[in-house]
Amino acid sequence: MKHFLLVFIVCAFFSCKSTTEQEVTANVETSQLIELFKASHSDYPNISVHRGGKGLLNYPENCLESIKFINDSINAIYEVDVAQTKDGQLILMHDNSIDRTTTGTGKVSDLTYNELKNFNLVDDYGNETEFKIPLFSELLLWCDKNNVILTIDIKRSVKQEDVIKALRDANAEDVSIIITYNVEQAKTAYQLAPDLLLSVSARNNEEFERLLEAEIPTENMLAFTGTRLSDVSLFKRLHDNNVVCMLGTLGNLDKSAAAKDDELYMQWKDQGADIMATDRPFEAFEAINN
Prior knowledge:
about 290 residues, alpha/beta, TIM Barrel, eight-stranded parallel beta barrel
């Protein structure tokens, strides 16, 4: 009899836990971006600015002032990199160290935020600016206030849950897209935040199939199709599932457009790439939108 009661209590506990989790998920208000970024729509930004702006004179990458500068001219979303300091502060920084992008030296993980404030950011040409390494929370508050959309690249040393907590603290769910690079990252991000739009790696049909098998809803997906032009059939399949496609033109494709003709951006769009993730945001925007 005691054994039966124990089994009953355990089953009841897990049943209640499952019901509670389902109720929480059902009651979560989804990000507005899930509705906005659909292949059947066309009113979302079609340029993604790599590292918040690269190759700009006097405007460093992963810098709030750079994002403001670009945002004054074009309608875009901004890819940024989130790292964590020694004292647990989330900041914008691509590299493990600050040597390349600031006037200082050392690993991000070995420095406190107060120590980082002693250094200035430098642009891609080595010019020192007056700009400081921004806090992630500072960027989130500005983006939420100005309705500017971010795609958030979480560095390996940073936990997804810490970044998600930060954007929830800033009430920035409606301007935040979490970047994932494989199915496992996509699964954990979806489990942590089923209300958010996720950038998922879908460079071919096999990767997209694994995402579907992981039971991540297609409505939560924005498909990054890689930095090479995929076959038209992949774009069509993703569009048939109402998934927006982002092509990474940063690198060789940007170089091709610069050397040949910016009209290539429009050709790639016509082949199925809805958003260009680029280091040439002004040129790509002009080619696609004018």
